[in-house]
Amino acid sequence: AVAADAADAAEHTTTDLERVKCETISKIDSDASIEKNSLTATIMAQAKTIEEQSKEIRRLKNENVIAGGAARAAQAEIEKLNNRINELRMETSSKEMLRMRNENVIVQGVARCAQAKNERLNTRMEKIIKENDALRQRDNPKTSVLQAQLRAAQMQISKMTAPFAQQLKDVRGECEWWKKELEKMKQEKNLLSIKVNSQSKRIADDSNSLQTLQLQLLDQLILQARMTRMSSEQSQLKGASMKDREATVLGTPGVPSDVNPNTSPFGCEVKIEEIP
User: Fold this and answer.
1) pTM > 0.85
2) How far is CA 236 from CA 52, 149, 165, 228, 232, in A?
3) What does the pLDDT look like over 7-59, one tens digit per residue?
4) Which of 1, 71, 98, 125 could form a disulfide with 199 if both were Cys (CB 3.0 to 4.6 A apart)?
5) Cβ atoms 150, 128 nearer than 8 A
6) Residue 218, Cβ neighbours under 10 Å: how many?
7) Domain span including residue 146
């Protein structure tokens, strides 16, 4: 009778253990299903986010290519302008130097002629003044005639020097005009340099944004790999549970052959007490 009661108690204990095991496995399956659904929803949301980020990355790449092309075009335009400025500067300097050299030679020759003529006129004027002083003492009418000659000589000198003054004025005006043109070219070069620097800064900002998006995408891939590993572990756990059920159907309920009969499959020791 004691053995029968013990067997009955062991059977009830085994039945309870089986029920607890089934409930535990059912709860694990339910929790795993909930966790799987949650992870699936999270993966779908993250996949959508990854897709949007991929579109953003492609858009930034296209903008980066466009900005790089604009920067290269601006750089080529600056180089073209610099070459043109250098060519104009060389042509202008060479032509201007040649023209000014020729004009300088002409002006120097004319100036030497005018100086020689002026010296002759000065000599004549001094001679006239001396004669005027000598004649003043003798005859006043002759003095008035000499003064008229002196005034005529002074007017002639003024007429001879007037064209050279106008030529010098024209040369100075043309030099001022070339200075203004060179200043305008320098301003255009500075504006193009500012534009290129702005494009370069924008390219650097787009590169930083692209690097940030790549890091976020890498984090998403790592999370996805972690979720895949968790799904694999859940599949292994389900496989182990199925093996335990098959062992229960084929052998001693809940007691594998290599486990202590007084120990439950969950590691808890089962004590069977005799009923007096």
Assistant:
1) no
2) 34, 132, 107, 13, 6
3) 677 677 777 777 777 888 888 878 878 878 888 888 888 888 888 888 888 88
4) 71
5) yes
6) 10
7) 2-250
